[in-house]
């Protein structure tokens, strides 16, 4: 999941509504909302449509809260990196203490309201997700180890589990598989980004794999990760949340994903300036479509199942 900024045309010190929206990382939040909704709708059991909507809203707010806490703590890094230098805090439009207050307030609100609306198991998972992203990943892993995105990727993988728990009150194999799909997808997705943003991470002192081990090792890691990811993604087709439609999508998308990783692995450096990192950028963009179509297929299977058309 990408930490893209939501830019507004304001001058330093002039915070507007869009700047506070930007603190919540809305593009990241959109993926959180989608995967959480799929987890909720694929879960067995009934839930009132209003409660379902409110549950997903709470999960989205919790995801946004963790984004605000991330921006508060990472303001020093964001100032250095070109990709993030126009975010609200480094640009001076939002004060750090304001971002911290927004993050903490929304964290408490989202967890409590989700617990009251659904159950406390789902609320506990949301609370742990916020803690994991803001503390374990942002404050510890990101600046300490090149495996930061491998372990830290768990934070972005929890939303479908939370959605599932909102309906069922617990965890099951199916929700763990949805977690695993996003968890194993995150490293190749982010490492592809890191390949063409390596200088940003170097200047900021972030020990991404591209900085500590080099681009060639990073390409090998991307390729290696596609195989357990493909096995898990295709295997999910044969569980209660899968079916023929999902299987077709999984087989096609994973074949293309492995092929894309192979193209990255075998390309030579340096390329002509016009071609530099074109393969990585294309793979990074495709990885977003990859995850969207997998969860979209799971959603389609859930929608077809009541009609006797989804599943096996």
Automatic annotation (TrEMBL):
Quick check: keyword Transport in the entry? no
In Pfam terms, one family for this protein is UbiA
Pathway listed for it is:
Porphyrin-containing compound metabolism; heme O biosynthesis; heme O from protoheme: step 1/1
Q: How does it sit in the membrane?
A: Multi-pass membrane protein
Enumerate the InterPro entries for this protein: Protohaem_IX_farnesylTrfase, UbiA_prenyltransferase, UbiA_prenylTrfase_CS, UbiA_sf
Q: Which domain of life is it from?
A: Bacteria
Gene3D superfamilies associated with the record:
UbiA prenyltransferase
The broad enzyme category this protein falls into is transferase
What does the record list as GO biological process?
A: heme O biosynthetic process
Reactions the enzyme catalyzes: heme b + (2E,6E)-farnesyl diphosphate + H2O = Fe(II)-heme o + diphosphate
Cellular location of this protein?
Cell membrane
- State where it is primarily located: membrane
Record bears the keyword Cell membrane: yes
Task: List the keywords (alphabetical).
Answer: Cell membrane, Heme biosynthesis, Membrane, Transferase, Transmembrane, Transmembrane helix
Q: What is its EC number?
A: 2.5.1.141
One annotated GO molecular function is: protoheme IX farnesyltransferase activity
Q: Where are the transmembrane segments?
A: 28-47, 53-73, 94-114, 120-141, 148-171, 177-196, 222-239, 245-262, 283-304
| GO cellular component: a single term | plasma membrane
Explain the purpose of this protein. Converts heme B (protoheme IX) to heme O by substitution of the vinyl group on carbon 2 of heme B porphyrin ring with a hydroxyethyl farnesyl side group.
**Miscellaneous information on this protein:** Carbon 2 of the heme B porphyrin ring is defined according to the Fischer nomenclature.
Q: Which PANTHER family match?
A: 4-HYDROXYBENZOATE SOLANESYLTRANSFERASE, PROTOHEME IX FARNESYLTRANSFERASE, MITOCHONDRIAL
Q: How does it assemble?
A: Interacts with CtaA.
Similarity field: Belongs to the UbiA prenyltransferase family. Protoheme IX farnesyltransferase subfamily.
Record protein name field = Protoheme IX farnesyltransferase
Q: Which organism is it from?
A: Pseudooceanicola batsensis (strain ATCC BAA-863 / DSM 15984 / KCTC 12145 / HTCC2597)
């Amino acid at each position: 999941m990408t930490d893209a900024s939501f830019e507004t045309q304001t001058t330093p010190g002039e915070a507007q509504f869009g700047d506070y929206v930007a603190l919540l990382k809305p593009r990241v939040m959109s993926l959180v909302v989608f995967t959480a909704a799929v987890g909720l709708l694929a879960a067995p059991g009934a839930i009132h449509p209003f409660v379902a909507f409110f549950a997903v809203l709470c999960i989205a707010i919790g995801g946004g809260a963790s984004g605000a806490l991330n921006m508060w703590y990472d303001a020093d890094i964001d100032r250095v990196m070109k990709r993030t230098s126009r975010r609200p805090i480094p640009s001076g439009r939002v004060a750090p203490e304001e971002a911290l207050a927004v993050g903490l307030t929304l964290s408490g609100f989202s967890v409590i309201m989700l617990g009251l609306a659904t159950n406390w198991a789902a609320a506990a998972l949301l609370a742990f997700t916020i803690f994991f992203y803001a503390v374990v990943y942002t404050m510890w892993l990101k600046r300490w180890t090149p495996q930061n995105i491998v372990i830290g990727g768990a934070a972005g993988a929890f939303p479908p589990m939370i959605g599932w728990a909102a309906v069922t009150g617990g965890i099951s194999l199916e929700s763990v598989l949805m977690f695993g799909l996003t968890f194993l997808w995150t490293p190749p997705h982010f490492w592809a980004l890191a390949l063409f943003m390596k200088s940003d991470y170097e200047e900021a002192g972030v020990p991404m794999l591209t900085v500590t081990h080099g681009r060639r090792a990073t390409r090998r890691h991307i390729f290696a990760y596609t195989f357990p990811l493909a096995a898990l993604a295709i295997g999910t087709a044969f569980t209660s949340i899968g079916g023929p439609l999902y299987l077709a999508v999984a087989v096609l998308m994973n074949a293309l994903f492995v092929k894309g990783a192979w193209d990255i692995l075998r390309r030579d450096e340096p390329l002509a300036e016009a071609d530099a990192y074109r393969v990585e950028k294309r793979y990074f963009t495709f990885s977003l479509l990859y995850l969207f179509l997998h969860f979209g297929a799971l959603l389609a299977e859930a929608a077809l199942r009541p009609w006797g058309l989804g599943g096996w």
